[in-house]
Design a protein that fits this description.
Layout lengths: L7 H12 L11 E7 L4 E5 L12 H11 L5 E8 L9 H8 L2 E10 L5 E5 H4 L11
Length: 136
Amino acid sequence: MTKVPYEPEELVKLALKAKESAYVPYSGFHVGAALVGDDDNIYTGCNIENSSYGATICAERTAVVKAVSNGARKIKAIAVASDHEISTIPCGICLQVLSEFCQRDTLVYLSNHKGEYKACTFEEVFPYSFKLNNDI
């Protein structure tokens, strides 16, 4: 947890750094995430695999769990980075978890392994999330 002003490039760099800590003995696919909570702190996470694949936790959910357990309730922005040549998008479970804490206009930075990223809104990434009060 770090309290600093953020720029997209800074979040992407933090996501790239977070992926270095990934525990991925099965897939070998490193993912990192960095998000800004409504408390203005930056939380990072990496994917942590388990031989029982259902117990694996993705980088995005790791960062969300850290943020929420420290009192944040909204995500202002999030960056996701991986080892891949193309920008990495969160999986379906991560998108659903993020939808609990993101607004439609929350900024999402999807990065490749070089730090090249695409900026979009959460709604562009996940336009139809499940909510108890869907208003689509």
